[in-house]
Amino acid sequence: MYFLDYIGLSGYDDELIAELLTGVAAACVENGCALIGGETASLPGIYHGDDYDLVGFIVGRVKREDLLRPESTAAGDALLALPSSGLHTNGYSLVRSIFDTDNDPSALRDILPRGRETLGEALLQPHKSYLQQLQPVLGKVKSLGHITGGSFAKNVPRALAPNVGAALDASTWSPPPVFAYIQEHGSIEDEEMFNVFNMGVGMIVCVAASDVEFLLTKLGDAWVIGEATGYDGTGQRVEWRV
């Protein structure tokens, strides 16, 4: 329905504010909601120099019968993956620590393997919106797991009934080059990578096994990443198969 924003900064900067609001307005148009207002606060005691906060929230509505149904998930359901556009909004503190970008931003100009994209360009990729892709098929979707903070271990269970777990197969996709570059330079173990970053997966879609082919056709770039399993409350709820 509508979006409200908050911009906090050390002092009013009309050019910056206009640039931010232009981007917010464009995103609202893309996602079918209206930017109806917000707040801009000059707080020099909190923000310093070029620091600023951009925060917002969306208010929407949905018919009760159209709500997603995590409680309807069951062992044997298929788990589909939709690709992310990059890191989305998680793992940046670790990246800044690995490359010490606060003191030396030169690493942001490094060219990533298998392409011409720099590290900085990869890190600046906007968080992907899945609305247009998912909206036409929501009637076939039981639940969605948005892979954000805590990655797979924290977010996949939120999309499942209490007695349901997940078996995911890491061999079903190749993470984008930026993740391997971060892992190599930070000497990070695989387990930590998959607990911090989305590794190229932005959304998990839980569907009945009988609807897999239909969903794969409609979603375009989705793939089967695993399946729902029975869970008795002990052990790892999200397991990896390689």
TrEMBL record:
Q: Which GO terms describe its cellular component?
A: cytosol
Task: Work out whether the entry's keyword set contains Ligase.
Answer: yes
According to UniProt, the name of this protein is: phosphoribosylformylglycinamidine cyclo-ligase
What metabolic or biological pathway is this protein involved in? Answer: Purine metabolism; IMP biosynthesis via de novo pathway; 5-amino-1-(5-phospho-D-ribosyl)imidazole from N(2)-formyl-N(1)-(5-phospho-D-ribosyl)glycinamide: step 2/2
GO terms in the biological process aspect are: 'de novo' IMP biosynthetic process; adenine biosynthetic process
As recorded in UniProt, its EC number(s) are 6.3.3.1
Which controlled-vocabulary keywords does the entry list? ATP-binding, Ligase, Nucleotide-binding
Domain of life the protein comes from: Eukaryota
One Pfam entry for this protein is AIRS_C
Q: Which residues form a coiled coil?
A: none
* Domain PurM-like N-terminal, first and last residues per copy: 2-62
- Gene Ontology MF term list: ATP binding; phosphoribosylamine-glycine ligase activity; phosphoribosylformylglycinamidine cyclo-ligase activity
Task: Please tell me whether the keyword S-adenosyl-L-methionine is annotated for this protein.
Answer: no
